[in-house]
Amino acid sequence: MTADTSPHCNTAALGPAQESLDPEDWQSLRHQAHTMLDDMFDYLRDLRQRPVWQPIPDEVRARFQSTIPVEPSSLAQAHVEFMESILPFAAGNAHPGFMGWVQGGGTPVGMLAEMLAAGLNANVGGRDQIPIEVERQVARWMREVFSFPETAAGLFVTGSSMANFIAVVIARDVALGFESRRSGVAGDTRRLTAYASQGVHGCLAKGMDMAGLGSDALRLIATDGRGRIDLDALALAIAEDRAAGCTPFFVAGTAGTVDMGAIDDLAALADLCQREKLWFHVDGAYGALAMLAPDLAPRLRGIERADSLAFDFHKWGQVPYDAGFILVRDGALQQQAFTSPAVYLQREGRGLAGGSPWPCDFGPDLSRGFRALKTWLTLKVYGTAAIGAVISRTCRLAQYLGKRIAATPELELMAPIELNIVCFRYRAENPERANRQIVIDLQESGAVAPSSTILDGRFVIRAAIVNHRTSQAEMDTLVEKTLEFGRRWNSRTSLDTQRADSIGG
């Protein structure tokens, strides 16, 4: 028999096993790996000596405009580029002075967990493997934390945006019937409507859009003086929609609004949803984990009655990005909403195809990273008491910052401090222009990095205190730097006015 020498069947061309992407010299890789690990430990240890954030120089940005590499380069060389051109120019949420958005700081333990997970390279979409049992254990722990029943299902996702979307999809399918997964929402004449407060995160509207219901179907309800949904206005909106022929199906309560950290009256919302036969969802993106803090947990009364709950371990839980989670009271409904049998996903009672149902039966992703490991390791190593203590401390820091603002005549507190978010501004003749500039100045200073938002049509500086590394020193720096840049603004404005008067005269 003559051997096939065509290029498609030339097995000799595959080369020896050494031509895999594994190194030939493991010892050299080990040495370089330890150098990289030490550099990251040094980075985390010395964060306070670094700027929170700094503008990216043009020449650094230009380095990332090159064409794709064809030939190899050394890992050591790439590491140098990382240290010089990437590490110094991240957003800075690991830094204790970062308080711009609700983002956790991560931990060295979480970083190591990411390394272990990457080395294992588990695809946790399905099949009979221990990484799925790790995820199931975290789900059981969360059922315990939030007093959900044994029927509840938990699933790791990228973040609360995806978790909220999954909740909308399940509630939609329950309302329309699961046959709508085949026929589509366009075949049903019912106009589904959902409800949330004006302070709800924008991902809810996006979720309604992606679910085929339209973002306009989300009714935004007025809030009270503490940023909580107005229950009377909500009940009226539901009644008006029913009278207009719409089909209310979903109410989202919020545990920690993005602007000011308000917590809706979750128990009252649960009562309303029970009366109206509506799906009760809670967006607890960061605030839900206040359940780990004994002094804060009572404020979440009613969360245990939710049909679904979205939250993020990568915020107050301090797990590295990304680690979102959804908990659904009736896991069977979640499975009905997402399971999609396929010949290449057949299940068996034994073997690698065992272990059904699989995580891919509870959400849209088949390819899933091992997010559960960094959460599991964080909870195992630190314990919930330590994490809860961090959560309580960030709220105490917010109260301290609020007292400093109240005691400083040049500053003005712009909203009640419900949890860990402080909204304030510098008093100026043109407060919007002044405070916009102050926020930028604060960020570019590298000392602290707040963000901004709009409350009742007024531009405010927003400090979200989430990082476990943040201390009273950063609160003091924020006040002092705000005063420094505010006074500088007032001086410039006064000088400009004098010049204008001089020219006019």
Verbal overview:
The longest helix has 36 residues, at 371-406. This protein has 14 helices and 12 strands. It has helices spanning 26-45, 58-62, 75-85, 108-120, 130-145, 160-176, 180-183, 203-210, 231-243, 266-276, 331-338, 371-406, 431-445, 472-504, and strands at 98-99, 153-157, 192-197, 218-221, 247-254, 279-283, 308-312, 324-328, 411-413, 421-426, 449-455, 458-464. The protein starts with 25 loop residues before the first helix and ends with a helix. Helix 8 (203-210) links the parallel strand 3 and strand 4 (218-221). Helix 1 runs parallel beside helix 3 and helix 13 packs across helix 14 (472-504). A 7-stranded mixed sheet has the order 2-8-7-6-5-3-4, sandwiched between helices. A 5-stranded mixed sheet has the order 1-11-12-10-9. It has a domain at 114-338 and 354-381: 3-Layer(aba) Sandwich (Aspartate Aminotransferase, domain 2). The radius of gyration is 26 Å and the shape is globular.
